[in-house]
Amino acid sequence: LADPQGAAVILLPFLFSLFCRAVSGQIRYSIPEEMQRGSFVGNIAKDLGLDLKRLSDRGVRLVSRGKPQYFAFDYNSGHLQTTERIDREEICAGVETCVLHFEILLQDQLKVHGVEVEITDINDNAPSFLPQNLELKISELATVGSRFPLQRAQDPDLGINSLKSYQLDNNRHFFLDIQTGPDGVKHLELVLEKSLDREEQATHTLILTATDGGDPVQSGTAQIRVIVEDANDNAPVFSQPVYKANILENQPKGTTVATVKATDLDERINKEIKYSFRKITEKASHIFQLDSRTGDITLVRNLDYEESPLHEMEVQASDGGGLFHLSKVVIAVKDMNDNAPEIAISSLISSVPEDSPPGTVIALLNVHDQDSGENGEVTCSIPSSLPFQLKKSFENYYSLVTDRALDREQEAAYNITVTATDHGAPPLSASATISLQILDTNDNPPRFEQAAYTGYVRENNPRGASILSLQASDPDWGENARVTYSLLLPLLPGGEGSESPVSSSISIHSESGAVYALRSFDYEQLRELRFQVQAQDGGSPPLSTNVSVTLWILDQNDNSPEILYPASRSDGSTGVELAPRSSEPGYLVTKVVAVDADSGQNAWLSYQLLKATEPGLFRVGLQSGEIRTARSVLDKDALKQSLVVLVKDNGQPPLSASVSVTVVLADSLPQILSELSSLSASAAAAAGGGGGAEPQPGLTLYLGIAVASVSGLFFSFLLGLLALRLRRWRNSPLLESGASGNFSGVPVSQFVGIDGVRAFLHSYSQEASLTAGSRKSQLHFPQPNYSNTLSSQKSCDVKDPFLLGEEIIGNKEDGAPSQVS
C-alpha cells in the first residue's frame, strides 16, 4: 500500500489552496488534509486589503468558537498558515463536506470577517475490517446457495478515496456476492457454492480483501475461518429489522437505552441465543454496552448531544448451532439545555468622552451556545435604563454602542451588565459586566448661588476690609470645574485712559470670590457702586457667567451741622435782625437755617436757645429753627438782644454747631436813632465820668448800622419795585402760567434735598415803604412776607434784613427755587 503522507505530497500541487468570497461576505479557502505544519492556506492580507506595513498595528486576531485553532496568521507575509497537521477524518468523521469556521478580528476597526476553510480528503486511510479475524460456523447440511452475511470493511475516506471493491481468494466451496441496498450501502454475503463435508474438511480459511479507489490504491484484508458444524437448520430471527430509540443526553449511566430480541425454533443448544455488536464505531463502543444474554443496550458513559446526536450500530443474534441473524439499532440523542451561553469580550474601550455622538462603539462581544435548536438560540440584552444598546453585527457578534448623549454630571461611570439568555426550557443565561468611565468635557459654565448680589459697608471703613463673598459652582470635573473670579469694569466715556471708580475702590480674590475694599468710602461722595463679577472655569475653551453686584455705602454721623443763615462774616459777626417793639407774642423775627451732609437720622436737626440777653423774650422752634417772640416787648427790654442758638443733629454721638444772632427792638428809625443817641449819651457820660475818654466804639457801630440799613433798604426798595413792575408788565401771561405750573399745591415749608440731605430752608424778606409825614419821614416795618427759597450747600449769601435786593425779587417772580447740589 502507498504511504498516505506521500499521497498528500503528490496531491498538494493539484489541490493548492483556492479561495472565493461567499455571498455572505465570508472568505473561503480549500486545502487538503494532512498538510505539513506551517503550510500556506491563503493570502488573507491581500484578500482583506490590508497593508503589510501596518499589520502589527491593526491587531489582527483569529477567533474560533471554542474549538482547537488549526490556523495562524503570519504578520510578516500576511499569509494564513496551518499550525498542525489536520486529519479530516478526526474532525469531520462521517461528514461529506468538512469546513472549519473562524473569524478574523480587526481590533482597531472593530470589524469581523468570517473565514471558512474546507478540508478536502486525500487517500490517507486504507480499508479495514473490525475485527480482522472472522469466524463462521456453517452446518454441513447447509444447501448450496446458502448465504452468510459478512462484515463490511470501513474506510473513513470519502468519494473516490473510499471503499470501492471486495475480493475473495480462490477456493472450491464459496464465492463472494455483493449486493447494493436502496441506501447505496454494499452488503457482503458469502455464498455456498459446493456442499460442505465436515468429515472431509472441518475448517476452511478464506481471505477477504477490500480496496479503495484512491491513487495509489490502498487495501485491507480480513481472515474468515469457516467451521463446519453438524446440522442446525433454524437460524435466530430478530423481532424487528431496525430498533429505534430516543434518549435524552442527560440520562445517567446504567440507563437501558433499548432491548433487542431474537427467537430460534431449534431445540437445546441450537436454541441458545447470544447477542453481540456486529458493527459499531469506536466512539459508540465506549458509550453503549450490549448484554449478550438479555439483549439490553445500556449506557456506560454520559451522552453528549453536542459530540454526536445519532448513533447507529448492528447487532447479531447467534444460536448454539452457529446460525445468526442481524438487526440494526438507531439511537437518537435528544438535546437538553445543558449548556449556558458563553460571552466573550473581543474588544473593549474603557472610557469615552461625554460628548461622544450616539452610535459610538464601546465593545465587541461574541456570544455562543453549544446547544442546538432553540436551546442554542441566544438573545442578548442590557438594562433598558442605560444609554446604550446592543447591535448585532455579524452572526453571533454584537456591538455595544451609545444610544443617546452622555452626561458625566448625571452619571460618571457605568457598569453595563450584558445578559445572554438561550431559548431553552428552562432557559439558561450568562452575564458579563463592562465598566465604562465617562470623561468630562467643559459643557457647563459656572453658576452663581444668587441671580444678583447686594452688599453693605459703612463709610470710613478700613482699607482691605472684606465686604462680601460671592460663590459660583461648576458641576464639571477637574480643571473644567476650577472657578476663578474677576471684575468686569465698565467702559468710561473718557476711553481707555479713564479709571473706573470700581477699579480704584474694590478688588476680588480670584480663587475665593471675596470682595475687598481698596479705600475708605465716604457716603457724602459715593452712595453706591454697581459692577459685575465674572466667574470663569478652567476648561478649554473656558466658559463664564456674569452676575451683577450692588454695593451700598451706609452713612455715619461724621459731619457736623452747617449753619447757612445767618451767615458768619469774616469778622465773626452775623448781622442784625430787627423786630418792632409792638410785635405780639409769636412774631417771627428770623430763622436759623442749617444743613447736615449726612443722611437719615444723622441729618435730622434740632434747634435750641442756649443764651439770651432777656431770657423768656424769645423762643426757637425745635424743628424749624424759627426765632419768635415768646412775649410782648417791655419798655425795660434792652434795644439790642444777643441770642446764641445751638443746632444739633440726631446722630450717635450727636454733633452740633452754634450761631449768635443780634436782634434790635424798635418800631421806627427815629426810635432807633433816639435809642442809639440815648445809648451814646449814657455811654459818653459814663466815659466823661471816667476822665474824658473817647466815645465808646459801640455807639459808632450802632450809628453806622442804622445809616447803612436805612440807605440800603430805601434804594433797594426803589430799584426792586421798578424792576418788578416792568417785569410784570412785559411777562404777565408767562408769569401766570409759570405760577400755576410751578407753585400749585406747594406748601410754604417743604423738604429740599441737598446731596440726599433733607432740611427746612426758608428765607425771609420784608417789604419796606416810605411815607411822608408833616415834618419828617418815618420808616415803617410791616409784618414780614415769607417765601421758600433754596440756597447752596457750599455758600449761602443772605442779604441784610434791611436790604431788599433785585435778585430776591427776581427769584420770587420766577417761582423756581434753585436746586442745592
UniProtKB/TrEMBL annotation:
Signal peptide, first to last residue: 1-25
Subcellular location per the Swiss-Prot or TrEMBL entry: Cell membrane
SUPFAM superfamilies documented for this protein: Cadherin-like
Residue spans crossing the bilayer: 701-724
PROSITE patterns: CADHERIN_1, CADHERIN_2
One GO molecular-function entry: calcium ion binding
Regions annotated as coiled coil: none
Membrane topology annotation: Single-pass type I membrane protein
Cellular component annotations (GO), alphabetically ordered: plasma membrane
Cadherin domain residues: 24-129, 130-238, 239-343, 344-448, 449-563, 580-667
Chief location category: membrane
A Gene Ontology BP annotation from the UniProt entry: homophilic cell adhesion via plasma membrane adhesion molecules
Function summary: Potential calcium-dependent cell-adhesion protein. May be involved in the establishment and maintenance of specific neuronal connections in the brain.
Record protein name field: Cadherin domain-containing protein
Species per Swiss-Prot/TrEMBL record: Sphenodon punctatus
